[in-house]
């Protein structure tokens, strides 16, 4: 290993902390396991999908916290695993949809109670016409980021459409559709002198 031999087996066994530390430092210096490959890697190559995921997580966290629910969200992926926060959000965006008698409030010791909360979330999501094919409450309990983000996207979209439906007076009493929103957005973009995105 190209290490200097100033330490005997007896020194190691006797436990001279300074000698052992020096020996370990020398081993690390010689064989640290770090690559000396100086190949240039661009910043874009170093970025993983975690960057995109963290942006989405931040967006949903800020949105949930803006709703004024009782529980503050610090980390979406961890905080939704027991189902309680999503039940609070669902009750906020679709009042009366949550059966609170069947919900378990944190701290939840038994794992099956978390699954029950999350199963109720899935049932409510299906009632709200969310696309939840092959999604179970246990997926949320296990912290499946992709499925959590997909559910949150649909929940946020539902909330925004509900807000727009409440603004019917601006649309002569008719319900707002995705096409209406796209038309409005393109009109706004066009008024700034840019090309439409639709």
TrEMBL record:
UniProt key word Repeat: yes
UniProt lineage: Eukaryota, Viridiplantae, Streptophyta, Embryophyta, Tracheophyta
Protein name as catalogued: Calponin-homology (CH) domain-containing protein
Assembly and interaction partners: Interacts with F-actin.
Keywords recorded for this protein, A-Z: Actin-binding, Repeat
PROSITE patterns assigned to the protein according to its UniProt record, in alphabetical order: CH
InterPro entries tied to this protein: CH_dom, CH_dom_sf, Fimbrin/Plastin
Domain annotation Calponin-homology (CH): ranges: 54-160
GO biological process: actin filament bundle assembly; actin filament network formation
GO cellular component: actin filament; actin filament bundle; cytoplasm
Gene3D superfamilies cross-referenced by the UniProt entry: Calponin-like domain (1.10.418.10)
SUPFAM superfamilies named among the record's database cross-references: Calponin-homology domain, CH-domain
GO MF entry, a single one: actin filament binding
Superkingdom in the source lineage: Eukaryota
Coiled-coil segments on the chain, per record: none
Gene source species: Cannabis sativa (Hemp)
């Amino acid at each position: 290993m190209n290490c200097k031999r100033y330490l005997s087996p007896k020194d190691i066994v006797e436990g001279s902390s300074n000698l052992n530390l020096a020996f370990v430092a020398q081993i690390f210096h010689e064989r640290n396991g770090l690559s000396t490959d100086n190949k240039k890697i661009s910043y874009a190559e170093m970025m993983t999908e975690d960057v995109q995921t963290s942006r989405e997580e931040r967006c949903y966290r800020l949105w949930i916290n803006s709703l004024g629910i009782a529980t503050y969200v610090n980390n979406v992926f961890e905080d939704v695993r027991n189902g309680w926060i999503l039940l609070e959000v669902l009750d906020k965006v679709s009042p009366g949809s949550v059966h609170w008698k069947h919900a378990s409030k944190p701290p939840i010791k038994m794992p099956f109670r978390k699954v029950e909360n999350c199963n109720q979330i899935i049932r409510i999501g299906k009632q709200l016409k969310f696309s939840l094919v092959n999604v179970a409450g246990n997926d949320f309990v296990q912290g499946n980021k992709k499925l959590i983000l997909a559910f949150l996207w649909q929940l946020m979209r539902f909330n925004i459409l509900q807000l727009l439906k409440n603004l019917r007076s601006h649309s002569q009493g008719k319900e707002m559709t995705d096409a209406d929103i796209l038309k409005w957005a393109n009109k706004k973009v066009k008024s700034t002198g840019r090309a439409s995105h639709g």
